[in-house]
Amino acid sequence: QVQLVESGGGLVQAGDSLRLSCAPSGRTFSTYNMGWFRQAPGREREFVAAISVSGGYTYYADSVKGRFTISRDSAKNTVYLQMNSLKPEDTAVYFCAARQAANINSYAYRAYDYKYWGQGTQVTVSS
After folding, report:
1. pLDDT grade, residue 103 (50/70/90)?
2. Short-list 8, 40, 39, CA closest to 111
3. Band of the pLDDT at 1, cuts 50, 70, 90?
4. Among residues 3, 7, 71, 120, which is most buried (max CB within 10 A)?
């Protein structure tokens, strides 16, 4: 069983930056695809970003492309989501997700592709 723990959320102003972290407890995530999703009140969970095992392939939702960067640090067993130029519409609970990878360059952007989920961290962007 993989348990994911997110951190780094908070309350910021529009234009500010935040970095979210996700660390799986109990095991290494070296063979897992990792992704970030978010869910705003009254809305469905939506894809934000994904990264391959190798770290060489990333994929972003159009709404965050150019502003957010997903990365992974194998030595620290942690995945990050660097969020720049935050907007009020980025306000949501952000979830980290993991799944066993098919190969080192694959990634996934559909929620149902992921087996493991964190509890989420709140990001609030004020205008």
Report:
1. confident
2. 39
3. confident
4. 120
**What's the Cα-to-Cα distance from 54 to each of 31, 37, 112, 113, rounded to whole Å?**
9, 20, 22, 18
CA-closest candidate to residue 94, choices 17, 27, 6 = 6
Please classify residue 65 by burial: count the beta carbons closer than 10 Å to its beta carbon, then call 0-12 exposed, 13-18 middle and 19+ buried.
exposed
Classify residue 56 by its DSSP letter.
S
User: pLDDT tens digit string along 24-70?
Assistant: 887 788 899 999 999 999 999 999 999 999 999 999 999 999 999 99
Q: Are 91 and 125 in contact (CB under 8 A)?
A: yes
Q: Distances from the Cα of 2 to the Cαs of 49, 54, 82, 91, 114, in angstroms?
A: 20, 19, 23, 27, 12
In the beta sheet, which residues pair with residue 117?
97
At 33 the pLDDT is 93
Q: What is the full DSSP assignment across 58-118?
A: EEE-TTTTTTEEEEEETTTTEEEEEE-S--GGG-EEEEEEEEE-SSTT----SGGG--EE-
**What integer pLDDT is reported at residue 122 of this predicted model?**
98
